[in-house]
Amino acid sequence: MRRPPAIWTIDPLEDCLANALLETGRLDEAIIEYQRILQLNENYPLAYYHLAQAHERKGQQNGARAAYEPVTRPMVNDRRAPYQFPLRRATDLT
Questions:
Q1: Residue 48 forms part of a structural domain
Q2: What is the pLDDT of residues 11-41, one digit of tens each?
Q3: Could you tell me which of 42, 38, 40, 68 has the C-alpha nearest to residue 53?
């Protein structure tokens, strides 16, 4: 199954609040905000990445795996994916 290209249909500043919440350790609120952002645009890989970071910091490995999965799948299966950043594979989280 081929994934659709990354399309930025939201304001580029949409994740500022979520990023601030993550950086200040307000992890529950950050998770909620990243989930809201992903409802607006499920093709926003950085939101998945930061959502996974928030779950990791809370010790929620299953949540982190689930959030990393949409981002790492193209990197593992398709080297031509439009968004590739150095992420751990979901299977590397234990």
A1: yes
A2: 667 889 999 999 999 999 999 999 999 998 8
A3: 68
